Structure formats: C-alpha cells, structure tokens
Amino acid sequence: MKAVRSVLEYLQGMGVKHVFGIPAGSVNGFFNELYDMPEITPVVTKHEGAAGYMAASYAKYSNQLSVCIGSSGPGGTNLVTGAANAMREHLPVLFLTGAVPVSTMGLNASQELDADPVFKSVTKYSVTVTDANDLLKEIVKATEIAISGVPGPVHVAMPIDIQHSQVGEVEIPAPAKRENMVPDLEAIKTAAKEMAERKSGYIFAGQGARNSIEQLIELAELLDWPIMVSPQAKGIIRHDHPLFAGVFGFAGNDGASKLMNEGDAKTLLVVGSSLGETATNNYNANMAKDRLLVQLDFDASVFNRKYEVDVPVLGDIQLSLVFLIEELKALGLSAETMEPLESKEAPANLEEYSTKNVLLKLQEYLPASTRYTIDIGEFMAYVIHHMEVKDEGTFDINVHFGAMGSGLSAAIGSKFAEPERPTVAITGDGCFFMHGMEILTAKEYNLPILFVVMNNARLGMVYHGHALQFKRVHAAFEQEPIDISAMAKAMNIPSYRMDGMEDLNPEILEELMNMNGPAVLEVALVDNNTPPMGDRVKFLSSFGK
After folding, report:
1. Which of 95, 122, 359, 475 ranks highest by number of CB atoms within 10 Å?
2. Threshold 0.90, pTM exceeds
C-alpha cells in the first residue's frame, strides 16, 4: 500500500467526504488515489485561498473535520490565510501541502518551501514528514490535535516521494474522537451563587455559543436577562425573541449599546466570546465596569486578556450552560413570564435606493431559513446593524478575521455541508475581484447559490472609513465600473443587474434561487450614506494624533 493511500483510508474512516483544493505535481499522488475512492469528492477550486475558506465553512456546518490541500511552494502560501481564518474561528481543518522530494530539500528545487514554520503560527500543529512510515502516524496525530480541546486547523507537509512510497500492509487506526471538556463543578456553583445573589444581568454571546443555542435561550429565560450577541455571533438568536437586545460591537445596535453602556445590570455573563476588538466595540471599558464578570469558554487563554474575569468557567460551552442551568434551578430560580424588550429599530422606509434597503428587501423576499454568508465591506456593516434574524444559524459573518472574499467561498462550503438550506452570498465588487471566480466552482458542482454583488466601483469600507477619519479620499480607492452581470453571462451563469429598487421583485429572486447551479444578482449602486461603523472609525482615529 502507498503511504498516501493509508492517509486517505484513514480520512474516509473519519467521515471525510470532500477535499477542497487544487491538484498539482507535488500532490498528484494524493489525487491519483481518489480515482479508486468515489466516497471522497475532490472539490477543485480556482484558488487555494478560496479552498481554505470553503474547508473552514464546511467544518463549521458539518461539525466534523474538513480537509484542504495545495501544492508545495505557492499553493502552500496561498493556503496560509485560510488556515489563519480557521484558527480564529476554532475550526478543525486538516491542511495538506505537497513538498519537494526529501533528497532535494535545500537544493533550490522547483516550488520548494519549508512550509512547516510558515504554518506554525496559524495552526495548532504543523509538521513536515520525511519518513514514509511516519506519514499516517502524523496525520492521525494532527487530526487528534485538530478536534481535541479547542478545535483548530493543523498542517502536514507531504513530500512527493513520501506520498508514493510503499509501506506494506497498514492497520488503519480507529477514527479520532473528541473528549468532552467537563467544567469544574465548583466554578459552576460559584458562578450560579454570585449570579443569583445579584439578580440583574446581561448575557453576551459570541460565536463559541453557536452550537449551544437551545441551552443559551433556556438560561436567559430562567434568569430573565437580555441577550446581546457579538457581530460574529449574529444569527444565533432570532430577532423576535423577547429577550434579544441586539448586536453589541462593530456596527451594533443602539439599544444594545445603550444597555451595555448605561444599564444598571450587576452581572455580565460572557458565553463563547474572546472579547476581542470587534466584539467589544474597541475594548469598551463599560462592559465590565461595576459588574461581576462571569465567562464561559473552552479556551483558557481568553480569560483575563483585556477584562478581569471574576468567575472563569473552563469547559465545553454546552456542558457549562447545562450545569449552570441545573445549579440555578437548585437555588430556586424558575422561568417566569418575560417582558419583551423595547422595540429596537424604527420601521424602515424602503423607497430610497440604498444598501440598507436593498438588503432588507432581499430578506423580505427570500425564505426565512436562508443562510447569508457575508463578505467584508461596507455592506457588512449594514447587514450587522439592520438585517433581522428570522431563523437560527442564518448568518455567517467573519468580521473577526476579516478576509476579503471569504464570504463567497463560505457559501460554497456551507452548501456542501447543508445542501438543502437556501444559501446567499453577499459580497462586494472588491471581494468579487479577489475570489469571484469561485462562482465557476459552484457551477461545476451544480450548487444553487445566489451571489449578490454590491457593485459600487470602489473599496467601499476603505472609502468611507478614510473619509470619516481623514476628511479626504485617495482617487485610487475608486475603480472603473465593471458590468459584473455580463461577466457572469460570459461564464454561462444566470445573472440579473439591478439599477433601482423597482428592479427587485419576488419573481426575479425566485427564478435566480431555483437554478440548477449558481446565479448572480448585481446591485449597481453607489451609496454615499455613511455606513453604521462610526465606533470603528473613532478607534482608528485615536492613532496618529
């Protein structure tokens, strides 16, 4: 048996059904074995960076290990951003790269790169295998590390000759399984006692709570505490829940900001948030001011980073919530009739042709279960601030790492993981020109995804942010307008160009959403309204004075 065949048989046992990446000479040993393994589908992308985003999204929504592969040299360096993205989102992705033959290492071989140290800072584990008998062992070790503790990406570099080497009959190990991180019961008891004594409080949830929504809501209803979410966690709580107070952080809601800054709650319960810059509105000191800070997380490194935590609870978030609920009930708490929070936003006037109104009208016409994967740009601020959460798990917003073009590929990874869920990628022309050719990947795999491209012929977030900060904008931030719908047509992908609010109607959207493959909706719009991102600008403006 070839060493690389043993790797694929192990990955198949792990439940791997897709491998995202691009074939090349240094990894063709891997791809060649896939001829005889129809259970694993190679998803050949147009760029390795996009493959990394797809693999991360697939890991997120399939709740299992994902695999991404690239060649030695530039293929590997193109994957690094995807690995950093997966690291920030705690997603278990196995990144595989080819490498030059062991005998030519250090001899300036074609596409030679010592990838191991390159990946070390953006993965939990990175290694180059130089003995064929170690390849499977290193893959097993890497996957165990990827799914254990705080999940995250790992990297294994496989030299060409190592992949093709014969290793005899190999016993394929049993699939790696993640052990639960059980929280300390004394910490749970302390948290429950302190919270019960103070009675009033707020819950602030981050992306780490995305698989614990039911328990999070049960706890909020038991305490009768408002729930706020970080921008990254938008989508985990429906907008119509009586206790939902909105998004706090970058482009957040006024009601949530007022509660956090002016509210008299005595406790802040942080669930699954690392309390980073975008989540805390630039490390807002008011969050923990004169409040007991209780933080639930499976990552010990998030405690006491910027805010002093009074009661840290380390463990799997779902288990910590379950235990905390039981302890609070034992202290006599019970769910009572909830008083709905005040209305958070005034009704929208949808007549003006604006980014806000286009997004709201889109959502009005699309199914409530639609998942929106949001790219990076000025439209992202409007999504966070204005779009409603009509169903749980319907927003994917990677503002935390903020890689332009990631939203396009996230839609594809999400669709592979959940084929039945309606999927819409919202992107901009800047992101589209980075990774827009992945609409061809969606076409080649018959993925019915609607790609909405907000086309304003400029780098919108940079344009507005620079104007707000420096009161002027460089001409290079704008670019020649391009007809993106015509580009799509040239690729035989259905498209529609929107030039005004009257161009958008349910019939058009239904047609675009029900293709046997992707479709493009181009929104040609130069919106000079200021996006709701003022606090970000204030933060940047604090430098250079």
Report:
1. 95
2. yes
